[in-house]
Amino acid sequence: MSHQPTQRLLALDILRGITIAGMITVNNPGSWLYVYAPLGHAEWNGLTPTDLVFPFFMFIMGISTYISLRKYQFTYSASAARKIVRRTAVIFAIGLAIAWFGLSCRTWHALAEEADLSFASRLWRAVTNFDHLRILGVMPRLALCYGATALIAITVPHRRIPFLIGATLAGYTVLLFLGNGFAYDETNVLSVVDRAVLGPDHMYKDNGIEPEGLLSTLPAIAHVLVGFCCGALLIGVTDVKDKMLRLFLVGTAMALGGWLLSYGCPINKKIWSPTFVLTTCGMAASLLALLVWIIDVRGHRRWCRFFESFGVNPLFMYVLAAVFAILLGNIRIPHGDGESVSLGGYIYGDVLRPLLGEYPGSLAYALLLVCSCWCIGYVLYKRNIYIKI
C-alpha cells in the first residue's frame, strides 16, 4: 500500500477505470438468462462491446509496464528481475485464490446433503477440494503477460520489440491454420494442448476451449507488448496534442488493419486471434487518444471522477468485485417452505426483477455491484491510498 504516487496520467487512469467498471458489469448480471446482447460475449467469431474490456485492460497494462520500468532505465538487474517475478507470482496466486474460494464455497453447499458430515469434516473437504480448480483465468493471464512483457522490456532492445510482436502474431497465425485453430471444439490445437497439460478438470468448459489457455497466451503477450510500445510513444512526446494525434493515427491504422485482415483470419477473443489483437489494441489506442483530448486538452474532468476511483486501484477493485460476487452467490437465506436462496438470487429474483423486469433488473443488479465497489474505492481514492502488488 502506498500514498500519492509521483505522477499519474489521468486519461490512462480513466480508461483503466472504465475497463474495470465494464468488467464488473459484464461479469455479474442478475441472471445469465437475461443479458442484453451488447453485454454478452460473441459466441465464437466476432466482436461485441463486452469483448473489448479485457483486451483494453491488457493494452493499458502494457503502457503501465513501460511507465513503471522507466525507473530501472529498462536495464536488466537482479533487483528488477526479482520484483517482476515476485509481482507475477503474486498476481497469479491471487487468481488461483479467487478460483479456489469460489470452488470451496460451491463444494460446501454441495456437501450440505450429506447429513452425517460434521461441520469440521465438511469444511475440511470444501477447502481441500482441488479436483476441479481452474488453473488459468483472467488474473493468471494478466500475471503471465505482465511477467513476460516486463522481462522482455529489460532484456531485449526496444527497437526489436515491434519485430518480436510481428513474428509472434505471424507464427501464431500459422499455428491456427495448421492446427485447426478456428474450430470451436476439442479438435482445436489450443484445446488439445490445454487438455494435455492442464487436464480437462482444470479448464473452463466452453466446447473444450479454455479462453485463457496456454497457447493463446502467446498473442496475449504480444498484445501487452503493443501497449508497451504505445507507452513509449505516449511518454516520449511532451506536447499533449502531438501525443493525441500520434496515438490516434497508430490506433486507427491497427484497427483498420485488423479489420481488413479479419476477412482471412477471423476476429476471435476465445483464441485471441492476431486480428483480435490488432483490432482491439487499435481501438484502445484511439479511445485513449480521445480521452487525452477530452481530459487534457479540453479540460473536461468532472465527469470522469467516478471512473478514477476504479482506475487508481484496478486490481484491488477487480478482486473486491470477484469476492463480492462469490459471497452473493453462496450466502444462503431462507426462502419459504424450508427452501433457501442465495443472497444474490434474492436481490435479483425478489427485488429487482419484480420491480424493473427481467433484463433491466439483471443489468441493475450488475450496476449495484459496481456502485458497491465504487463506494469502497472512493474512500481509498479520497485518502490517496493506492494498493500496489
Automatic annotation (TrEMBL):
Record's keyword terms, sorted: Membrane, Transmembrane, Transmembrane helix
Claim: Iron-sulfur is one of the keywords in the record: no
InterPro entries (alphabetical): HGSNAT_cat
Residue ranges crossing the lipid bilayer per the database entry: 52-69, 90-112, 132-156, 163-184, 213-235, 247-264, 276-295, 315-333, 362-381
Keyword Membrane: yes
Pfam families: HGSNAT_cat
Domain Heparan-alpha-glucosaminide N-acetyltransferase catalytic: 8-99
Protein name as annotated: Membrane protein
Lineage: Bacteria, Pseudomonadati, Bacteroidota, Bacteroidia, Bacteroidales
